[in-house]
Design brief:
Elements lengths: L3 E4 L1 H12 L12 E8 L2 E5 L11 E4 L2 H8 L5 E4 L4 E4 L4 E4 L2 H13 L3
Antiparallel strand pairs: 1-3, 2-3, 2-4, 5-6, 6-7
């Protein structure tokens, strides 16, 4: 059975940015989430279990918080909840997001933008 979750356009844009700067996109069914590259009436569809999907080329990986932190490695310094948002930091950069994953994802994107 395929479980679906509905994300936001911002979630999709962040996932797309991660892909475009080279975030690992390997398919590991059951351990990560993936966005479907099509819009539905509820928003952007996120497939939660990929075991029944045959063509993975239409999906963009939305990694777990743990995976993004792993990719950041020693550059990551802190993550904390402020009054109205989350904040993620390195020694040089601070990013904010409505969720811990969004804040850390934005941090990864800022650190890895192609210059």
């Amino acid at each position: 059975m395929i479980k679906k979750h509905y994300g936001t356009k911002e979630d999709y844009k962040l996932a797309e940015q991660l892909r475009d700067i080279g975030f690992p996109q390997e398919i590991t069914p059951g351990s990560d989430r993936y966005f479907v590259i099509s819009k539905c009436k509820e928003g952007w569809t996120v497939i939660m279990q990929m075991t029944q999907i045959k063509n993975y080329s239409n999906y963009i990986k939305v990694p777990t918080l743990e995976k993004v932190l792993e990719e950041l490695g020693d550059r990551f310094v802190s993550l904390f909840k402020e009054a109205k948002c989350w904040s993620a930091q390195t020694d040089e950069i601070e990013t904010k997001g409505s969720t811990s994953l969004e804040a850390v994802t934005k941090l990864y994107i800022e650190l890895n933008k192609k210059k």
